[in-house]
Known about the structure:
Strand order of the largest sheet: 6-7-8-3-9-10
Bound molecules: adenosine-5'-triphosphate, magnesium ion
Structural class: alpha/beta
CATH architecture of the largest domain: Up-down Bundle
Mean pLDDT: 89
Amino acid sequence: MKDKPLRRSGIKVMAGLIALLGSLAYIMILAVFNGSLGFISAMGVTVLGAVGVAKALGENIAMSYGLIIGLAVGCGVLRGLLRYFEQYSNHFIAFKLLATLRDKIFKALRRLCPAKLESKKKGSIIAMITSDIETLEVFYAHTVSPICIAVLVSLAAAVFVGIVASPYLALVAVVGYLTIGIALPLISSKLLKRGGVEYRRSFSLFNAYFMDSIKGIKDIIYHNAGEERKKQVDRKSDELLDLAYGMKKNIVNASAVTELAVSLFIIISLFVGVVLYTQDMISIGAMIVAVVAIFGSFGPVIAISALPGNLTQTFASGDRVLDLIEEQPAVLPIENAKDMHFSSLEIKDLTFGYDKNIAVLKDIDMCARKGEIVGIVGESGCGKSTLLKLLLRFWQKDGGSIEYGGEDIEHINTRSLLKNVTMVSQSTYLFDDTVEENLRLAKPDATIEEMQDACKKASVHDLIMSLPNGYHSKVGLSGDNLSAGEKQRIGLARAFLSGSKLILLDEPTSNVDSINEGIILRSLAEHRKDNCIILVSHRLSTMAIADRVYTIKDGRIRESKN
Ligand SMILES: Nc1ncnc2c1ncn2[C@@H]1O[C@H](COP(=O)(O)OP(=O)(O)OP(=O)(O)O)[C@@H](O)[C@H]1O
Ligand SMILES: [Mg+2]
């Protein structure tokens, strides 16, 4: 992932995340309503206590002690109930939204694939699906409604103090709320922002590095690089720990300052109350009730001041998630265009580069028809696999045309294209499932006979039958129970099974011995009758079966054999 600052401001991230609420907004309103009333009930307990004290001091209060105690108990019970409903609504929204967000991320990834997964570090996508989403749970469950609750409760408390005691005391309370709820959080969020963003970025890079290490563990062991890699993991983990430590330290400092400010404002309101009382502007009872009300009303704004530590992380997570959801794919799928039935492929002046300034392929001309096997050779890195991927429209060509039966690839429905054209890539991925299920990827409703036929053609049937459970044998994680050549042959069987008319084979026999290669090539030769095969290979023995061979060199293509 690029080392970049947040693309959006905190407000924009918040707005973007709230926009995702959709129809859940009304539950959020319910949560805010319950939360505010809950806090007011909590304040009610202490304020009623103060009312009792005021009555004892001779204040004229039209409530019996019994009623005051009864109301205080009622407020306490209500507080519990309202808190329950508030938390219930918040978490209902949070978890519902997490599911929706995960769904959106997977949809975004599906849209962005395969280009996205070729370039983006998988670790950072995994970090996004796991920890970023968890961070957003904090936003929905513990951020939005506390802010609304703080505004409502502070307003109610200020109005109450203004009415029962004095507007001056209400003013002290309002200044206190603004300082603790807005000024201090803004200052500390500025101070904490960089740390939060840095932490999340390092966390995602660490994840990517760790995932990479796990994936490459075999090569690490072969090269005896375990100690070195472990040192790197330790070093990165220490760096991450340092960042976390620094961030936590800042959060603790910020919360200490907040507590100090709260104490300060309580002392100020007490001082102002005493002054007002000595000036005969309010009674002793009103002063006690007002100061106790102010004292009890800081809870919601303190909750806000505790947010910035989380918020900076939330913004960083939200920014990345919103980025991914809004990202435009390298290639958009084509719908509502034409369907195709493969008969011929004609490529003219095709130009393409991953980086728009550096062309990997230039002015490529080639053709392939039904019944043909067309070979492609060239040095490693010359663009053979790239050319095959362009035939599947995994990437958008920069210039020229790729026509199937006279129709440009840009006007053919993606679904239809993928039904007609299939590819066996240089490394076949097998899922941690049975051989049968792995084959079904190519044709979900395939019969066992069809599967066996495809496997015979790919010279892998005998091997499968020798496994303990035949076609029901598990291939292990990433097909680890099979050799590279065996996996390759299962990939080939998938291609035969798919029924696609144009089969693109990227080094189909690179890991196969000459006996099995012979069987595969014979199958390909038989298969060509009503299909077309484009074959990439380094081996001359493989190219012998091709009707025509093209060579790619320096990005250009030429036909080398008829
Ligand atoms: N996703 C990608 N993003 C950027 N560059 C890429 C990407 N995939 C391949 N390339 C580059 O494009 C060039 C052509 O790569 P390609 O995989 O097509 O080569 P190839 O001919 O298939 O090589 P090999 O015989 O080793 O498989 C290479 O320089 C490679 O580094
Ligand atoms: Mg290749």
